[in-house]
Task: structure prediction
Amino acid sequence: MSNHSQAHPAHLQHHFVDSDQQFDAAKMGMWVFIVNEILFFGGLFCAYIVFRAWYPDLFTMAATKLDTTMGAINTVVLIGSSLSVAMAIRAAQLNKTKWIKINLLITITLACVFLVIKYFEYSHKMHDGIFPGATLYTYEGIDHPLAHVFFSIYYVMTGIHAIHIIVGIGLMIWIYIRAKRNEFGSEYYTPVEMVGLYWHLVDVIWIFLFPLLYLIE
Amino acid sequence: MATAEVSNKKTLKVQRFKPSDNPSNTYLTDEKGVWAWMTTVDHKKIGIMYLVAVAIFFAVGGALALLLRTELMTPAKTFIEADTYNQLFTLHGAIMVFFVLVPSIPAALGNFIMPMQLGAKDVAFPKLNLASFYIYVAGAIFTFIALAQHGLDTGWTFYTPYSTESSSSVIWVTMGVFILGFSSILTGTNFITTIHKMRAPGITWGKLPLNVWALYATSIIQVLATPVLAITVLLLTMERWLGFGIFDPALGGDPVLFQHFFWFYSHPAVYIMIVPGFGIISEVISTFSKKTVFGYWAIALSSLAIAFIGFLVWGHHMFTSGQSAVATTVFSFLTFLVGIPTGIKIFNWIATLYKGSIKMDTPMIYVFIFLFLFSIGGFTGIMLGALSVDIHLHDTYYVVAHFHYVMMGGTLIALLAGLHFWWPKMTGKLYNEKLAKIASVFIFVGFNVTFLPQFVMGAQGMPRRYYNYVDQFTAFHQTSTIGSYLLGVGFLIILYYLMHSLFKGAKSPANPWGSRGLEWQATSPPDFHNFDHTPVVIHGPYDYHQPMEEFQLGLAVDTNGHDSETAKEVVDKEREQWKNYSLG
Result:
C-alpha cells in the first residue's frame, strides 16, 4: 500500500482499524482460547468422574497417599500469584510501569515456588514406586488392583497443569522483558492482560484439581 | 468515478469504487519468492498454501483408495497382502478425514474468502493463521514417520484395545493427530474472533454472507470439540506407552469409554467437514440463480442448530458397543433431530431456485450434484440412526456408502463447487468451461457407480474393511471398482484444466459471475490488502434486485483506513455512523 506515515501507534497492527479493535479482538480470541482449555481439561475431568463413580473405594484409599499440606500450600501460592498478576494489569492501566515489573516478578517467583513444591511431591511418590501407568507402578501400599489408574489420572491432570504453569512462566518472562523496554502503559497493555487471563485460568483449574484429588474422604 | 448518492437521512460520504478488470498490483505481485510465501501472514497466501497441501493429501488418499478398490476386484487376494490392505484402508481414512476433509473448506477456501466477505484486510490473528499451517505440516510429518516405520492398521478410529496392542506405529499417528488438532483449534479461534470483530462498516449480523455463518458454526464446533480429541489421543498415547489403565480392559480400563471420548469429537467433526460445504452451496446457488437466498435466517441459524445438535448424537456410533438400552434409544431420537435443520437448508435452497434465472455454469452443476448426492447421504443417515435397522447394517458397506455420500458427495462436491466458483477470484484466470463440464459428468457418474452398489451389498451383509469376500458380492465390488476409476479420471481432468488455466488460461474480469458478494467487488486476483478502500455495505449479500453500483461502495476518503491522521479522523467518524447502518 501507499506510504505508511507515523500516524498510528507502534503497537497497532496493519490489519486493524484502531487500537480498540485490536484490543477487543485480542480479548475475544483469548476468551475463546480459554473455552478451548476448559474443554481440554474437561476430557480429563470426565475420565476422573467416570472412574470415581465406578471405584469410589479406590479414590478414597489412594487419595490418602497425596500430601494435603503441600497441596494446600500450593493452592495459597497460586491464589497469591493470581493476585499479583491482577495487580500487574492494574499497574499497567494506571501507567505505573515500575509496578508492572515488580508484580510480574512476584508472580514468576510464586509460580516457581509452586513448581518446586510439585517437584518434591512427585519425587517423593516416585521414590515409593508410585508412577503413572501399570508398566512402572510398583507400590504395594494401596490394597486395590486398580491403584495405578488413580495415579495415572493424578499424574496426567497435575502434569498437564504443571506444563501450563511452565508455559505461563515463559509468557511472563516475555512480557517482563517487554515491560522493561517500556512497551506497556495505559495506552497499550493487551499482552499483560492476556497473560493475566491465562494465569487466572491456570489458577482456577488448580482450584478444581486440589479438592478433587487431595481432599476426598 | 461517479459518486453514488444513497438516499439517506444522514449525510454520509461514500463513493463508488468499481473494481478494475486489469489490476496492476495484486497479492501475487506483492511479496514474491519462496521465502516470502513461507513467511507470509497474508490470509490469501495461507489459504492457497492450505489448498495445495490439501490437494496433495487428497491425491495420496485418493491413490490409496484406488489401490483398495483394485484389490477388491476379486474375492480372494488380487495383488496385495492382507496386512498391507489393512494399512491402506486405515491410511486412506486417516488422511482423508484429518488432512483433507477437516481443513479443506475452512482453512483453504475459508481463509482466502472469509476476510474478503467481511471487507477486512486480514483475519484477526494473522500470525496464528500462519502458525496453524505449520502445525498442520508438523502433524503431517509425524504421520509420515509412522508410515516409514510400521504403518498403521487400526482404522482411523484407533479403537482400544486393538490400538494398544497393534504392532504398528500408533503413537506416531496419534501424536500427529494431537498436533493437527491445534491447527484446527487455532483456525476456529481465529475465525470466531474475525467474524465478531473485523466486519466492515454496514455488515450487521443480518448481512453476513451465509458462507460466513457456516464458517462461524464450524468454528464453534472446532473450538468445543477438538480439545476433547486432543486429550483423547493424548490419553491413548499414554495408554500405549505407560499402560495408564483408562482405556485398556486388560489394565482395568474401559474400551467403551474410549469410544465415547473419540466420538464426542469425531461426530461433531463430521459437521466440521460438512457445514462449511453448506456455506458454499448457499453462495453459489444464489449467484447462479440471480436471486435472493430464500429464508436467509433459516439457513443461517440452521447451521448453528446443526452445530448444537451435533454435540448430542455421538452415541449413535456405538449402538452395538454395549452402551445402555436407554442411552441408545435417546441417541437414536436425537440423531433424527439433525435431519430437521439439514432439511430446512435443502428446502430453502430449492426454494431459492424457484423462478430464478438459473445459469448452469460449472459451480452450479456441482451444486445440483451436491443436492442429489447429499440428499441420498442424508436419508440413509436417518435409516442408520434408526436402532433396529442399524443393528443389521452396522459395520457393513451400507455405512461406508452412507458416509461417502455425505463426506464425498457432500463436502468434496461442495469444495469443488467453491473451487470452481472462486478460482477466478483466487488466480485471476478462467478455466476451460467445456472440460470442466465433462469432468463433472465423470465425477457424478463415477461416484454413483462406485457407491450405489455398496448400499446394496451392505444391506445384503457385506462387512466393511474385509480383505476377502464371498462370491455373491463379486459383481457389486467390480462395479464399484470401475466407478472408482471413472472418479479418478474425473479428478485428473480437473487437475489438468486448472493447471492449464494457471499458465495459459484467459484473464478473468473482476466479477465473472455478476455476483453481489463483497469478495467479488475486489479485483481478481485481489489486492494485497483485499480492498484499497474501506468497503461500506448497505445491502444484504444476495440482494440481486439492487443495482450493482450499490454493492461497490466505500468510504469516500483517499485512504485504506490508517494512512494519515486526518484521514483516520474522517474514517473513524464515518465508520461510527455506518456501524449499524441499514436501509430498512
Q: What stands out?
A: Chain B touches chain A through 55 residues (CB under 8 Å).
